[in-house]
Amino acid sequence: MRAQGPGRGRGVWTVAALVMLVLLAGVGGWWAGRATLVTPPEDSGGGGDEVVWAQAAPASVGQSLPLSTTLRQPVEVVAVNTLSGIVTQASPGEVQVGSTVYAVAGVPVRVVAGQLPFYRDLALGVQGQDVAQLQEALIELGHLTGPADGRFGTATARAVRAWQEELGIARTGDVPLGEVLALPRLPVIVQLGEAIKPGRMVAGGEDGVLAPSGSQEFTLVVTPEQARLIPAGAQVEITWQEHTWSGVLEGAMADEHGSMTFQITAADGGPVCGQECHLLPGEESVSLRSEVVVVPPVQGIGVPAAAVRTTADGAGYVLTEQGEQEVQVVGSGQGIAIVEGLSEGTRVKVLATENPTDLGEQQPGLLVPPGESS
After folding, report:
1. What residues contact 141, with CB distance under 8 A and at least 6 apart?
2. DSSP string, 105-119
3. Which residue from 1, 65, 10, 54 is spatially nearest to 31, judged by alpha carbons?
4. Coil, strand, or helix at residue 130?
């Protein structure tokens, strides 16, 4: 036989090194970053079967689609301006009882909750539902005690003067028409009419405050490919700023191109935003970030899916340093299996090197690695 030259020896070592790199790339690459330690291959002493060990660690599996939900809500004029002069302040956005939405000639225009538009000056001796709306606001603001009886008496006049003093305006004790507006619901995010801008001249009769009518529709439009991934009644998480609401998809309708439009409601059938709808923008159409849950998340102790094997009767197990350990798979995905019956930190055998390239092809349901018997 010919003696093996130095160049041939180096070639053998190069091939071995490449095999090791393939193994580590197939296993260590996807398991890294999940707080699970993959240890280097070691010789099992069984004639060349090198193995990789992984450490069981807390993990989560699941699948979701990042999409965009559209909020549609009719916006209508809810209050008309009745003051005249130069607009000196405009404050659209979220408003609550007592908030100033704009000012004309330095006079603040405030909002209170009420279904009846204010249509007259409010002063001593006036009675009616509009007075009761004013009184309810004064009670909420802490300026008035007692029931909102709809009678503008001396106690109400004192409360109005206290409110005027707080605002830094003349303490007249009465409320001229136009200085307080009634909005159907508060708090709410409002827009202002086109004429209500600082520096503009208003004469009265302009659109003052616009707000959503209260009818809100959340819809999700997906492509045919995305629709095939979404199960019936899937859950969706909708996010606006720091707020997140959960809803369900229902009422799917297909168009001529195969795209699907889903209606989104809360689990109880109400609006997705629940009691926080006033936090959403007041525009007629708003795009909201959302995630459709395709596979519900499962959390627990995770190991590489390729570490889980099955017995002849279908029971799952892993090979630990102490021997076989029975486990139950409760979830899988992204190359991870969430198992019960295994302690955090336990080292499990992932793969024999007889066929290392098969690791990247392992599916969550394929629990017996090729080349190994159960």
Report:
1. 97, 98, 163
2. TTEEEEEEE-SSPP-
3. 54
4. helix
Count of beta carbons in the 10 Å neighbourhood of residue 148? 18
CA-angle at 9, arms to 3 and 15, nearest 5°: 140
**Contact by Cβ (8 Å): 89, 184:** no
Q: How far is CA 208 from the centre of its chain?
A: 33
Q: Backbone dihedral region of 47: left (phi > 0), alpha (psi from -120 to 50 degrees) or beta?
A: left
How far is residue 258's CA from residue 228's CA, in Å, rounded to a whole number? 11
- 109 closest CA partner among 193, 184, 175, 195: 175
Question: Distance between CA atoms of 73 and 214, rounded to whole angstroms?
Answer: 7
Tokens read off for 284 = 């007629």
Q: Are 236 and 218 in contact (CB under 8 A)?
A: no
What are the two backbone dihedrals, phi and then psi, of residue 134, each rounded to the nearest 5 degrees?
-65, -45
The DSSP code sequence of 277-291 is GGGS--SSEEEEEEE
**What are the pLDDT tens digits along the chain (374 aa)?**
444 444 444 444 443 443 343 333 343 433 433 444 455 555 544 444 567 899 999 999 888 899 999 999 999 999 999 999 999 999 999 999 999 999 999 999 999 999 999 999 999 999 999 999 999 999 999 999 989 999 999 999 999 999 999 999 999 999 999 999 999 989 999 999 999 999 999 999 999 999 987 788 999 999 999 988 899 889 999 999 999 999 999 988 988 888 999 999 999 988 899 888 888 888 899 999 999 999 888 999 999 999 999 998 889 999 999 999 999 999 888 889 999 999 999 999 996 544 433 333 333 332 333 333 33
Secondary structure tally for the chain: helices H, strands E: 4, 22
Looking at residue 122, the DSSP 8-state letter turns out to be B
Q: Residue holding tokens 């009422």? A: 251
d(CA 245, CA 259): 24
* Backbone torsions φ then ψ of 371, nearest 5 degrees: 90, -5
Look up residue 44 and give its amino acid: S
**What is the Cα–Cα distance from 127 to 272, expressed in whole angstroms?**
40
DSSP 151: B
CA distance 301 to 340: 7
φ, ψ at 172 (rounded to 5°):
-90, -25
